[in-house]
Design a protein that fits this description.
This protein has about 150 residues and is of the alpha+beta class. It contains 4 helices and 6 strands; from the N terminus they run ααβββαββαβ. The longest helix is centred in the last third of the chain and has 15 residues.
C-alpha cells in the first residue's frame, strides 16, 4: 500500500510565475473543490493566503472539507477576478500545516484580509471543532485572461 506521504514526495510540483503571484496577492477568495468521504463532488468558497509557492486555507476539524483535505487526494482551487476577467485554476496536494508559526501567520493574515477578524468568517459560525490550516502545493496551474 502506498503511503500518502510517499505519493506527495513523488509528485512534481509546479511554481507560480510573477503574473500569477500578482493576481493571487490582489484576490482573497477561491472555490475549493474536493471529493467528500463518500466520493461525492463538493466545493466551497474559502479565504486563502499565498506564501511563497503555496496557498493556505483555514477550516475546522469536524467539516467535510477537513476530512477531504486530510485524505491527501488532490483538490482543485479556482480564483476568479470578475473585474479583469482573469482566472487561475490549480490542481494541488493538500496537507495539514504542522509549523505553529505558519499556522498563526495564516490565521492572522486571513483575519486582516476580511477586516472583522476570523469570527466573521462563515466557518467561524459552525460548531465544527478546532481551526486547522492546510497548505495547498500546486501540481498544475492554468491561468487565463478572458478580456482580450
Amino acid at each position: 500500500m502506498t503511503d500518502v506521504s510517499d505519493t506527495i514526495r513523488e509528485t512534481k510540483f509546479t511554481e507560480f510565475n510573477d503574473e500569477q503571484i500578482q493576481f493571487l496577492d490582489v484576490n482573497q477568495t477561491m472555490i475549493l473543490a474536493h471529493l467528500s468521504r463518500v466520493g461525492e463532488a463538493d466545493a466551497t468558497v474559502v479565504y486563502y493566503v499565498r506564501h511563497a509557492n503555496s496557498l493556505y486555507v483555514l477550516t475546522k476539524n469536524k467539516t467535510k472539507k477537513y476530512h477531504s483535505l486530510m485524505s491527501g487526494e488532490a483538490v482543485t482551487a479556482i480564483v476568479y477576478d470578475e473585474a479583469t476577467m482573469t482566472s487561475l485554476k490549480m490542481k494541488a496536494h493538500p496537507r495539514a500545516e504542522s509549523d505553529s508559526h505558519i499556522r498563526q501567520d495564516v490565521f492572522n493574515h486571513i483575519s486582516q484580509k476580511i477586516g472583522d477578524g476570523v469570527g466573521s468568517l462563515p466557518i467561524a459560525q459552525l460548531d465544527a471543532g478546532n481551526y486547522v490550516v492546510f497548505r495547498l502545493r500546486p501540481i498544475e496551474i492554468t491561468f487565463h485572461n478572458y478580456s482580450s
